[in-house]
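Could you please review the protein record set out just below?
***
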Amino acid sequence: MINTMGKLMDSWEELLADVISVPVYKEESVPEDETGNYVQLRAESESEDDTKHSFRNDAVVITDIITVFTSQVDRSVVEGIDGEIKALLKSTPGYHNLDAQSGMQILSVVPTTAGYLTEYSDGKIYYRKVVRYTHRIIET
């Protein structure tokens, strides 16, 4: 068995970094001086479901889209960033564009849930969209 989550997170970062309109950060790597909109990728969970012939697991990765406003929230900003992510991830129905990683195959990627959060701090409004993506992975 290999660590598939680390490789899966690398695939997500390779897909989005320097391509979408906002910075992308993995896990807790958001700089303290970040003041604009950005996406944070986070590993949420893994579960094993091995068969007699292969090691298989289901992994969940979160895209946390954070937008910042000073007076009124414009929901279209967070939806636009989410649209960029989804267009890059799945340009054709039934397929995904995550880069292959050695030792594993990503069979499917499905956005399963999305939630919205509003937070207020230091005169700013943070509006977030948190999307959970479930992946079916087998080790090769």
In short: The chain has a mean pLDDT of 92.
